[in-house]
Amino acid sequence: MKVLCFAGLLVLTCGCSGQNWQAETAPVTGYISVNDQVPQGAIVSLHPVGESVDKRGSRPSGIVQEDGRYTLTTYEFGDGAPAGEYIVTVYWPEKPELGGLSPDRLGLRYATTKSSDLRLSVAGSGAPLKPIAIEGAKITMSDEKAKGKATPARNPFPGPQKSAAVAP
Q1: Which of 54, 63, 105, 149 is the most exposed place for a label (fewest CB within 10 A)?
Q2: Strand order of the sheet with strand 61-63?
Q3: How far is 166 from 90, CA to CA, in rounded Å?
Q4: What does the alpha-carbon distance between residue 137 and residue 35 come to, in Å, rounded to a whole number?
Q5: Chain segment 92-136, per-residue pLDDT in tens
Q6: Could you give the CA distance from residue 21 to residue 130 in angstroms, rounded to a whole number?
Q7: What gap in Å lies between CA 48 and CA 40, rounded to an integer?
Q8: How far is CA 86 from CA 76, 80, 98, 101, 146, in A?
Q9: What is the pTM of this model?
Q10: How many alpha carbons fall within 13 Å on the CB side of residue 56?
Q11: CB contact set of 45 (below 8 Å; sequence gap of 6+)
C-alpha cells in the first residue's frame, strides 16, 4: 500500500511541477503615446497573429508608466513576450486603480483585436519594441481632467525612433 501511495504521489508531483506549457519569452519594453500624451495607467496587451503562444492562450501585457514605458509580462512580472507578430490592444482606464472597471478614455477604439489596427513584432532577442504613437484619437476625459488637472504632455520617446503605429 505504501508503494502505491508513493507511486501516486510521484506521478502527481511530476505532472504538476513542469512548466512545459509555457513558451520561451524574452524581456521586452516599449513606449506609447496618444496625441503626444503619455497614457499613464493604460493597459497594453499583445494578441498573437495566428497560433496562440501556448496551450493556455496567454497574452503578454503591461501597464504604461509615467514616462510612457511599459514592460511586458506573460507569466511572471517582467518576463517579456514570446517572439512573433501581434495585434496590440490598448485600454486606458479613466481611473487606473479600477483597471477594466473604469471607462476607457479611448472609447474602446483600440480595446479589441477587431477594433485595433496596431501591430507589433517581438524579436526573440529582447530588443526594444518600436514606439506606438496614436495620433488623432478622441480622448474622453473625466471631470477632473476636463478641469485642467490632466497630466502635461511629454515626449515619451527617448531617441530618434520611428513609430510602429498609424493614425486612425
Answers
A1: 149
A2: 61-63, 43-48, 84-91, 118-122
A3: 14
A4: 7
A5: 999 888 877 889 999 999 999 999 999 999 998 888 899 999 999
A6: 28
A7: 24
A8: 19, 13, 26, 25, 34
A9: 0.75
A10: 10
A11: 59, 60, 61, 88, 89, 90, 91
How far from chain centre, in Å, is Cα 92?
11
- Burial group, residue 77, by CB count within 10 angstroms (0-12, 13-18, 19+): exposed
C-alpha cell at 77: 512580472
Distance CA 41, CA 63 (A): 6
Cell of 45: 496587451
pLDDT one-digit tens code per residue, 27-69: 999 999 999 999 999 999 999 998 998 999 999 999 999 999 9
- Strands 84-91 and 118-122, how do they pair? antiparallel
Print the SS3 string covering the chain: CHHHHHHHHHHHHHHHHCCCCCCCCECCEEEEEECCECCCCCEEEEEECCCCCCCCCCCCEEECCCCCEEECECCCCCCCECCEEEEEEEECECCHHHHHHCCECCCCCCCCCCCCCEEEEECCCCCCCCCEEECCCCCCCCHHHHHHHCCCCCCCCCCCCCCCCCCC
